[in-house]
Amino acid sequence: MLEVRKLDAGYGLLPVLRGIDLDIRPGEITLLVGANGAGKSTLLRTIAGFLKPTAGTILFDGTELAGRKPDDIARSGARLVLDGHRVFRDLSVWDNLRLGAAARRDRAAFDALAADVIDLFPILGEKRKLPAGSLSGGQQQMLALAQAFLGGPKLLMCDEPSLGLAQSLLPAIFEALRAWAARGTAILVVEQHVDIARPYASKILHMDRGMLQPTP
Amino acid sequence: MRAENLQAGAALALILATGLIPDLAGSDYWSYSFQFANLLIVAAVLQSVLMHDADQISFGQGAIFGVGAYVSALAMTKLGLPLPLAVICAAAGAGLAGLLYAIPALRVQGYYLGFVTLSLAAVFPELLFAMDAYTNGINGISTPAGAWKQPLLLGLSPLSLFTTALACAAIVGHVLLRRSVVGRKIRVAGASPESAQTLGIRPGLVRSAVFVVTSACTGAAGALYPPIVGFVSPAAFHLELSILLFLAVVVGGRGQILGPVAGIYLLYLLPNVLLVDLIDYRLLAYGLVALGVMLLMPDGLVGTVGQWLSKRRVAAVAHLSPDELPIPPAARRADIAGPEISIRGGTKTFGAVVALDQVDLDIERGAIIGLVGANGSGKTSLINAITGFNKLSGGSIAIRGRATDRMSPAGIARLGIGRTFQTPRIFDHLTAWENIQIGAEARLRPLAAIPEGPLARLRDRLAGSDVRTIPHGQRRSIEVLRAVLTGAEVLLLDEPAAGLSPEERQQLATLLLRLRDEAGKTILLVEHDLDLVWRIADRIVVMERGRIVAQGAPADVADDPAVRQLFAVPAHA
Amino acid sequence: MLEELAFVSVRGLGLGALFALLALSLNVIYQATHILNFAQGSMLVLGGLAGVMLSGHDYGTPIWFAGMLGTGLVMAAVMAVQGVITLWPLRHSTEQQSWLITTLAVSIIISAVLLLTQGPWSSEFIGEVPSFPVLDMRTPLPYLVLPLMAVFWFVALRLFLRRSLQGLALSALSQDLDAAAAAGLHVRRLQIAAFAISGLITGTAGYAAAPIISISAESGIRYVISGFVVAVVGGMGSMAGAIVAGPLVGILAMIATYRFGGQYQGFVSLIVLAGMLFLKPNGLFGFTAARRV
């Protein structure tokens, strides 16, 4: 589904990614680990279109993603959940969810998916009318994930979902990812808490100083 | 450099031709048009210096020009002064007006500064009306040129000679400014005020000085307006003039020597002279040209042509090995023993966020100290506190025993503290060599003489390089070398290995070891690359959530269980 | 004394409401794109021109409303076109400041067109302007209509941005541009919609204010400066700030006009702007958004 070949990217003239080769298949959870500054977030942002690659290709179901705008890529089915549990703070939880699916016009599908999401994260149902800014960090992370999932993505990328969250919330988040993977979504997760994430992953990739280490 | 010379040559040729030929040919109409155009060129060059070199947005230079014109007119009519003296008065008056612009520039930048200058320029005509006892209000003041327009030599009038000379001086002055120490300081202060401070430059002072000087010169140009046109009135100095000068610089090509000339020709001469029969369409042509150029050639006319031409030439890429970098020998220092930097109880809070929490740290002379920790652990806050970019909320910092709590970053730089940033502050508008030179020019501390040989060889190696083609690793080396050349004894390096390839990391390690061993420098290295840190550091400090959780020799820190929990320590220790 | 107070208050409020409407429309664009539209004043003048063109024919109130609606829609379309032109170079993000020039250029082009079609003098509203009494003084109706319009647009914007899906999307864009893009919202389309909404507000405001504003080639830039001052004083991007700062600046300007004469309006704006930038650069309701570009 996602084929990355010889990808180079960076910020301005600061090169970060060097020659990345990557394959992601549907229904799998791929875990990306590595030290700070290794380039994991940069890789996700480049695939999602926030950074323009300086070399290489990113093929998503056969179409080239490199050079396209981030909102265009998101609408094609590759969604990135940014790090830092970013939600639209002044809008209600329910409005945040609606916006996640705004690009698709399928009302029935939205209702079904929304019901599923509320099952996974009941707190979102309880607080649906409250502004998203009033939720705790962990709840906002759930909301951000739910928002992305409601867009019905084929590829879901998550950047450090556990950052700043209480340990107790992580299983719920990874259970949700597992459930979505079971439906056929391909999932690529960057995660510091390797031990907690490991049991859920089909594949683990190590990144070091801008390059993917060969898998042992 | 070659491109600049070419452009300067072209500009001078155009100015001389248009300034002198009409007089020789005896055409009063073209004489007048080009005299006026040349004055606008002077004002546009100054606007370019302000906007591009100093990075200040000003929508009000037309008003400054008008101040010059009015002061000159008043000096000549009310005080009976001859033109040269009137020019001096005008420069003084305009310089004062420039001070009015400089004050808000200390407080706000960017488009906020643009508004303030825009508003100031908008009230200038109103001011002229309000002072109509002196300015004669809407009727203006009549200022016949007299002898200045009489042919002096071969049909050339003194006024033509004067304006042509002034315009040529502006072009030459711009080029010379760029090549001078002062010019480089201005450009560094404009491009990166933070970096400027680490070089001991005070950006606020530089900005104010640039405003005052460019305004004085603009006023001097404005002083020639009355004799050329024959009278001054408020209608001539509306906002439109300020906007024209601004647009001329951008449409011509920001930062290009030929840019202001191209801009004035496109936006003033083209509509006003070529369309003189279609006078009503002038304004439309002006707007359409400005819009069209910006849509099709966002870098301006000269900028886009220049880029297109330079694509043909492939620039040489310089590769520097660490052995080639000139390292000054260790300075003999007679001062007191003791740590270079000493922090006690250092605490920094941003609202509810605690960035630094009771940090006690000594940095001893001649050592490489590695500072590691996760993002958000306080490493950059610590560097910012030491270098004065952030003041501590609690605790104190002393540099060689001297308390630095109240010092500005520029002042701390003068104590011999050098710093690099996470993204190398390399200035694209300076050459590669100039990027290093500005360190030496900062002259923050007496520098033990660097062997002239290596320095000259480096200069030759870099001479032809476009700084944009220099690979990232080398940019990093350039930034470090610049800091060394300021005479700094202590170097604070913020993630210098970020973005480097494995070979480049090796070269960086070699460079840092040379700096410690040959030059006796003290280095504080903030890094994520634990391999690198463990390899070269004498001592390692580990931070987590604003506190120091471990410090000591690399082997000891590696064995510390608290540290092992935070991250995977490199196998060798 | 009371008459003085009433005169200054009513006219100051009306003028201030006009500035507030300008500031609202500037803020809509700013929130979605971080662009400051230098052509906004020219757009106001075009709206006023429409009002003048329909004057003197004794059409009656329903036609007047229809004219206002039509003007609003036309100006929305015009500004949508301006939006496309202004945003187009930004896709390459080589020259991030190009919007400064393109919006200035559009302002100049509109001035030029006005000069060509209307001549250099200002277009006057033809016929008698309906007025309403304030303590024995006849005050032109726009001074009453504009404050009502300001309140209307403020409320309408608020409802739109909070209730409709497109409005929510636009609101999301201004809260977190990256997150909005990551959520698949049509960034470019929403930004052009912001321009169109801005045109709707400015067009109707100009139309209603036609009898009391200066409709000439050179007045556009003066209006946009007033709009900027109010937007900055209220806090760049803040709608509530615009509504509060508008009357504040308007009344101060009116006091200065009354005491010292009309030519000092510019000074008042300048002093208020300078004062606010020194004391509280983020404005009355401003967030710690970038005051540096």
Helix residue percentage of chain B: 55-70%
What is the annotated CATH architecture of the largest domain in chain B?
3-Layer(aba) Sandwich
Task: Give the percentage of residues in beta strands of chain B.
Answer: 5-15%
Number of DSSP helical runs of chain C: 11
Shape of chain B: elongated
What is the percent of helical residues of chain C? over 70%
Q: Classify the fold: give the CATH topology of the largest domain in chain B.
A: Rossmann fold
Helical run tally of chain B: 24
Explain what the structure shows:
Chain A is an alpha/beta fold. In chain A, 33% of the residues lie in helices and 26% in strands. Chain A has helices at 40-48, 70-75, 93-100, 107-120, 122-126, 137-149, 170-182, 194-197, and strands at 2-11, 14-24, 29-34, 55-60, 63-64, 78-81, 155-159, 186-190, 203-208, 211-212. In chain A, strand 1 and strand 2 (14-24) form a beta hairpin. The radius of gyration of chain A is 17 Å and the shape is globular. In chain A, 50% of the residues are buried. The mean pLDDT of chain A is 87. With 573 residues, chain B is of the alpha/beta class. Chain B folds into 2 domains: 2-236, no CATH class; 322-566, P-loop containing nucleotide triphosphate hydrolases (Rossmann fold), CATH 3.40.50.300. In chain B, 56% of the residues lie in helices and 11% in strands. Chain B has helices at residues 2-25, 28-53, 61-77, 83-107, 110-130, 132-135, 158-179, 181-191, 193-198, 203-222, 225-229, 239-252, 259-274, 282-296, 301-310, 379-386, 409-414, 432-442, 452-462, 472-485, 502-519, 530-536, 554-559, 561-566; strands at residues 141-142, 231-232, 341-350, 353-363, 368-372, 394-399, 402-403, 417-420, 490-494, 522-526, 539-544, 547-552. In chain B, the strands form 3 sheets. A 6-stranded mixed sheet of chain B has the order 8-9-10-5-11-12, sandwiched between helices. The mean pLDDT of chain B is 86. Chain C has 293 residues and is mainly α. In chain C, helix 1 packs antiparallel against helix 8, helix 2 (40-53) runs antiparallel to helix 3 (61-87) and helix 5 packs across helix 6 (165-175). Mean pLDDT of chain C is 87; it is low at 289-293. Chain C is 71% helix and 3% strand. Chain C has 11 helices and 2 strands, in the order ααααββααααααα. Chain C has helices at 2-33, 40-53, 61-87, 98-118, 142-163, 165-175, 177-182, 187-209, 219-234, 239-260, 265-279, and strands at residues 131-134, 137-140. In chain C, a hairpin with a 2-residue loop joins strand 1 (131-134) and strand 2. The interface between A and C is medium-sized, with 27 and 19 residues.
